[in-house]
Amino acid sequence: MINGERRIERPLRWAMVGGGRTSQVGYKHRTGALRDNTAFQLVAGAFDMDFARGRDFGVNIGVAAERCYPDYKSLFAEEAKRPDGVEAVTIATPNGTHYEITKAALNAGLHVICEKPLFFKVEEAEEIKALAEEKGRILGVTYGFSGQSMLLQMRAMVAAGAIGDVTIVNLQYTHGYGCDPTGDKTNESQKWRVDPAVAGPSFVLGDLSTHTYYMSNLILPDMRIKELLCDRQSFVGTRAPLEDNAHVMMHYENGAVGTMWVSAVNAGCMTGQRIRIVGTKASLEWWDAYPTELRHEVQGQPGQILYRGTDYLDGIAKDDERLGALHVEGLSESWANIYLKFAIAMDAKNRGDEELLKDLVYPSIDGGLEGVRWIANCVKSAEQGSVWVKYE
Ligand code: NAI
């Protein structure tokens, strides 16, 4: 159970690049990082492309004016001169900037938390992974839904054989906000998402499905995709070559099969993230509409619902429990859980505690790299005419 008591000696001095007043995701980061007041302290930032707006915003959320910087380069350079300079930085800017800012942050000796999709190319992710290792720094990736404790319960139940051998993996992350194309021209957060120069080689595959794909790997750590087929299209034609809808079929090395439906044009859909894992004896299903519940359906028996915060759950799920049973936990707690693990990982790295790091389950550079690999394979299949491609 998490009750806010400190897990590391002292909170880490933390900065943000991006995540300013108009950003979609910035507050989620602060909600997560600052939840317990014992993991991170926000002391600096280059919050916005517009310096004046970014500084005004920074001051309004409690950052000293002189530590609100015009850009990431001056942030890293000036903070390095201070005895109390930042130790960790979050990068919450549009996709096309992640690689250069992450590289600069690692070279400045900082631990990094970066948004997904991490980078455009697998080679970039491999290069940055090597750089993080060389510098002895942590790189966490904010798969923000993945801190929900019922996903860890699924992981534990699959490992314990509760559903038998996994045969079918059914994944979905869809919404309908892309049905109206007006925002592609008028909304700052939407414009870059449909521009390949900034978004990268995909729209919804990177924006949405990387989350659900990471979560499936969290639940099924031993399963690897052998080959996949991706059919992607843009129902709003101006988004081409990027997709606003895609279906992916997967063949796993162990003989299991899977599907992912990802879409920004699932009209009217407000709760469209689902994960169903089917085994030879039973199935598990998690749905973001009821994040504190887990359906366990055993063939031939009445279905069961497991609830978060209860004694019968596995220890790994109980460890990340915050509010107790009867109360609804959700996305805020999920972000707080992953940020707490980022802090624990960074502190362990600082102390050279590799044993702790080996067993810590959190979205690390490996999960970020796998997300980039997933997109690359999906795009490769789609571009070859939606054919099966070997997963590499
Ligand atoms: P946005 O367009 O809404 O906001 C971007 C923010 O970054 C703005 O404050 C902008 O002024 C600032 N910015 C842009 N370039 C900058 C630079 N070079 N230096 C400093 N600040 C800069 O974008 P949004 O939706 O917040 O997405 C940002 C990133 O977060 C993307 O990579 C996106 O994929 C990811 N994201 C992740 C989510 C999650 O659940 N993990 C949810 C939403 C977005």
Automatic annotation (TrEMBL):
What is an example of a Pfam family matching this protein?
GFO_IDH_MocA
Per the database record, which ranges form the Gfo/Idh/MocA-like oxidoreductase N-terminal domain? 12-143
Signal peptide residues on this chain, from the entry's feature table: none
Segments forming domain Gfo/Idh/MocA-like oxidoreductase C-terminal: 155-390
List the InterPro entries hit by this protein, alphabetically. Answer: Gfo/Idh/MocA-like_OxRdtase_C, Gfo/Idh/MocA-like_OxRdtase_N, Gfo/Idh/MocA_oxidoreduct, NAD(P)-bd_dom_sf
Superkingdom of this entry's organism?
A: Bacteria
**One GO molecular-function annotation for this sequence?**
nucleotide binding
Q: Into which family does the record put it?
A: Belongs to the Gfo/Idh/MocA family.
Name by which UniProt lists this protein: Gfo/Idh/MocA family oxidoreductase
Native species of this protein?
A: Anaerotalea alkaliphila
Q: What is the lineage of its organism?
A: Bacteria, Bacillati, Bacillota, Clostridia, Eubacteriales
